[in-house]
Amino acid sequence: MLQGEKYDMHFKILLLGDSRVGKSSLLQKFVGETVNDFYVESLGVELKETIRNFSNSRIKLRIYDASGNPKLGFLLNQYLSIAQGVFVCFDVTNSFSFDNVENHVKKVKAAHSDIPIFLIGCKSDLSLERSVETEKIKNLAERLGLPYFATSSRKDVNVSEPFMQIMQQMYFLSLPQKMAPILEQHLNDYLNSLPQSNNFSSLFTTRSAKENLLIEEYKKNFAKLCQAKEVHDLEDFCRETLDIIERANLLFANENPILSVIATSPLSKTLGKILSDLSKSAKDFIDLPAFDSNKLTIS
Fold it and tell me: Where are the alpha helices (DSSP H) in the chain?
């Protein structure tokens, strides 16, 4: 257990699977502990912690190793309810453990319909003892729509990769909740700064009815962003917002031909700030053109 170490955020990962499939050895290897040469059954659910760096953040991983003993199955629901990512593990030398994979996946999806689930084949170095064909595993992973990793704690094969990839997925899924208040504040500041209709006295601070339509369109796109589950959802939001920025600039030029010579659309500048903040937080997932929110140019 880590005591006193600073971190920016934390995620919880649950390791599921039958007894003796290699869950504990995989976790021990990942956190840098000595892997036992003999089998020691996990008693209930054991917790290990480690801190990893990603996207300029220190991320604590709390990893729960659940016993595969059916008599302790009642403990699973408690930990499934808090898990943000799950490994369903099996032993490639034990076909029975592979046959139980789908049941484990069903339990996870019954508790969480949309958290990352990885399929983990342990003891992949024991090729002479293998009883589960690779093709059979890949077919199941494809049918269930799950990433698959063949691992070996003994040979240190694919030990870190699945943990790091699921951490990145959990980080991505946390982005909408993390960024929504910040992005929302940009638009609220803009909306609160301007009156609703044109008049001569507010020549430099007005918002037209047509601009209101663009704002409503943006709000609908923003609502979809808050439900983003895949990178393409983020890319769609950025592409749609870029389109609104372009149309806002054209609208501003048409409605303010003189003013547009010396100023840019306030709405475009606001949306540019939103994309700028989003691109900084999501830089590891999308390649968004950089924004100068003051000049509103794309480089």
Answer: 23-30, 76-80, 95-99, 101-111, 134-144, 160-193, 209-225, 231-255, 266-281
